[in-house]
Amino acid sequence: MFKRIGAIIVIINLILLMACAAPTPTPSGPLTVTILHTNDMHGYLEGQILKMSDGVTFEFGGLPHVMGTIARLKQEAQGPVLLFDTGDLWVGTFASNRDQGKTIIAAMNSIGYDAMTLGNHDFDQGVAVTQARAREAKFPILIANIVEASSGKVPAWAKAYIVKEIEGVRFGIIGVGYTRTPSISSKVKELQAFKFVDELEALKQILPEVKRQADVIIVLSHAGFDADQRIAEALPDINVIVGGHTHTELRMPKVIGNTIIVQAGSKAQNVGRLALTIDRATKKITDYTKSNLLIAAVSNKAQTPKEIAEMFNKLIEEGRVATRKVIGETLIDLVRAYTPDGRSTGEYPSGNLVVDAMLWANQAGDTPADVAMHNNAGIRADIPKGPITYGQLYEMLPFDNVLVAMDLKGEHIKAVLEVAVSCPRVNTLVAGMSFTYDCSKPAGSRVSNILIRGKPIDLQKVYRVQTIDYLANGGDGQIAFREGTNLIYGDPVVDVVAAYVTKNSPVNPKVEGRIVEAR
């Protein structure tokens, strides 16, 4: 009997040994990999409530529904999935700004992001915050073109690129941030610790190294759609560019040579989906999604994972306590004006409201301010006629800029206006001042008829100017503001505007001819 049992054990061991020694079957047929991607979500935790013709309502957009949509698309994907974000992640709404991106990174960890690159606004709350979020992320931060000024190396909390192997195919994934970040950031002094290399030059340098290790090359870019197209033209070895920064909704891919460019809009409204078919033998892309790239993040088609929903619900409710408070009323729609290419420009009601409030606040010490100046690019939302809540103002002014008073010579004020008039855009808003511009004249000599408090500007006179810390530090290329002296820092601009609205409600700002185009 014992001999029989021993023989049985030997046979079982042989069977197990043979099973272990059997080679793993090599996958056959083409490989399909789905790239899911987000960009420029700007901390939009809540979307828009929409109503169908049949009376059914649902929410369009919002980070919880983005995460639910990603979970659904992962389940529906026929093959492996890569999940990316291309920056400008958490700055933009009251609750998200206050949380400094902690909850969003935790949700991204939970849903399984593979990598992201950084946008310019991901530095808005300081480098220490950016580093903290990078260390909390369970996925790599890729920034090949942002290096330490002291060492020339990518900082320890980030990487230039990664290589991921999926069923025998190697994917090289490189990240590039926005080269001009220091010129448009309120944290310009902190960012002096880094060198922002031109995106194209950085990719040229690193591409040979990545090519030796990868079969398919993907670039995560916050350079903007135009720059992505230039990169594709210059570097045909890049297979896919997942873009950001310009908030471009590409429902069909832009293909330049062999490079596929995609981008998913902004404000947590869509998830991009690009499926690639790859020949396993040649490691070449043989097919890809050619239409319907953007999947709307809507509540009726997305089941947000419970743990993620609970995280976001807590953050949303905490924010609502402050943002639901009605602080005043507007008698008109507070809207912006735009250039043909969709950039806010010149004089318009909401802009005049902001600079009027800045001039009214007069946090300039003993000397009343002569002029208030704010950039158009910093006004980010419209407010409809009716009650105004603090939350609406925060969406209009989401960047936590503070009021700064300074002494500035007339010649420097003129220099600021000349830089702002880039034609067709005029990237400034003014109070206490008016001017004329002429786009037919060369850059640097387009501004004339500058009046301050109704009198012609004196280029040698010193004026008291109210602006924002972003511009005071030279943001938007406005280096003339750095000539300012006797700086006094005041309250957050959103709080200044809130106080002005409360004091002067109902508000009814008009277009008054402060900024006039020559005819």
Jot down its keywords:
519 residues; alpha/beta; Purple Acid Phosphatase, chain A, domain 2; 5'-nucleotidase,  domain 2; 2 domains; six-stranded mixed β-sheet; 13 helices; globular
Ordered list of secondary-structure elements with their pairings:
Blueprint lengths: L1 H20 L9 E8 L9 E4 L5 E4 L2 H14 L4 E5 L8 H6 L2 H10 L3 E2 L10 H10 L9 E3 L12 E6 L2 E8 L17 E3 L2 H13 L4 E6 L3 H10 L5 E3 L11 E3 L2 E4 L7 E9 L6 E4 L5 E3 L9 H18 L2 E5 L18 H13 L9 E4 L11 E4 H7 L5 E8 H11 L8 E3 L1 E5 L9 E6 L2 E2 L5 E7 H4 L12 E8 H12 L10 E3 L2
Parallel strand pairs: 1-4, 4-5, 8-10, 10-11, 11-13, 18-25, 22-27
Antiparallel strand pairs: 1-14, 2-3, 6-9, 7-8, 12-13, 14-15, 14-16, 17-19, 18-21, 20-25, 20-26, 22-23, 23-24
Quick one: overall form?
globular
Describe the largest sheet: 6 strands, mixed
The residue-averaged pLDDT reads: 91
Please, what is the CATH homologous superfamily of the largest domain?
Answer: Metallo-dependent phosphatases
Number of strands: 27
CATH topology of the largest domain: Purple Acid Phosphatase, chain A, domain 2
